[in-house]
């Protein structure tokens, strides 16, 4: 009789390996379907919603943080630093605008815990849980507990996505990346890409705005007066 733990570990590695192999095999060809979908009514509706979303940017100081990859705490620490230091230099939090665009392999932070656990996002996107030090099976920046994140010399900091949203920070996520990664996963496990994508979309966190693409969103943010900051 096989050891259950060993079997589960092997299954997990096979699962992630299949996704990685599929993603590599897809290459540039994986962009054909997303670009073909760009003319669909659903995609056009997304553009309209995203353009309306950017119309909210009317603050005195505006910045967009470009997040193409998980990068420790920085996608969430830097928006808080921007707000705190502007407040310290005379501009109240509500008079600033912060936009965070999650794109490429930075997209997992846009999803709820269920998606992280079911699709093994921690392993797929190389994100470790700061508490367990193992591949995350939850979104570590969604509703963190008090004291979860501390900065030397500063102490506990409120850098959860929900906490930043309460401070007015706006989060967008790249639909192109969601399409490509969900398609790669579907091919790796022999499932329908449309069903995987649909399930992912059902697991987006509240207040996360899908964007036609991350680079589109970064460009729109700058057109609306946001300074640019790369997080990667």
Q: What are the secondary-structure elements, in order, as H or E?
A: HHHEHEHHEEHEHHEHE
Spatial ordering of strands, largest sheet: 6-5-2-1-7
What general outline do the C-alpha atoms trace? globular
Q: Tell me the number of helical segments per DSSP (H or I, 4 or more residues long).
A: 10
Q: What is the helix fraction of residues, given as a range?
A: 40-55%
Q: Pick out the low-confidence regions.
A: 4-10, 24-32, 34-41
| Overall average residue pLDDT | 87
Q: How far apart are the first and last residues' alpha carbons, in Å?
A: 46 Å
Q: Provide the gyration radius in Å.
A: 19 Å
Query: How many DSSP-defined strands?
Result: 7
Binned strand content: 5-15%
Structural class assignment: alpha/beta
């Amino acid at each position: 009789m096989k050891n259950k733990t060993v079997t589960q570990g092997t299954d997990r590695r096979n699962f992630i390996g299949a996704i990685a192999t599929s993603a590599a095999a897809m290459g540039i060809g994986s962009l054909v379907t997303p670009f073909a979908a760009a003319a669909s009514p659903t995609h056009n509706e997304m553009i309209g919603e995203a353009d309306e979303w950017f119309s909210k940017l009317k603050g005195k100081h505006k910045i967009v943080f470009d997040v193409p990859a998980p990068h420790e705490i920085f996608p969430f620490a830097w928006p808080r630093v921007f707000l705190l230091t502007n407040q310290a230099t005379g501009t109240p939090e509500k008079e600033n605008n912060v936009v965070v665009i999650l794109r490429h392999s930075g997209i997992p932070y846009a999803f709820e815990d269920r998606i992280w656990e079911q699709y093994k996002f921690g392993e797929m996107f190389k994100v470790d849980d700061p508490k367990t030090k193992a591949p995350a099976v939850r979104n570590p920046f969604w509703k963190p507990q008090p004291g979860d994140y501390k900065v030397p010399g500063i102490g506990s900091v409120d850098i959860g996505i929900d906490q930043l949203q309460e401070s007015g920070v706006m989060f967008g996520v790249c639909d192109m990346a969601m399409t490509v990664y969900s398609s790669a996963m579907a091919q790796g496990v022999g499932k329908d890409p449309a069903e995987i994508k649909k399930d992912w979309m059902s697991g987006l966190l509240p207040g996360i705005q899908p964007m036609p693409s991350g680079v589109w969103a970064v460009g729109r943010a700058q057109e609306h007066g946001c300074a640019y900051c790369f997080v990667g």
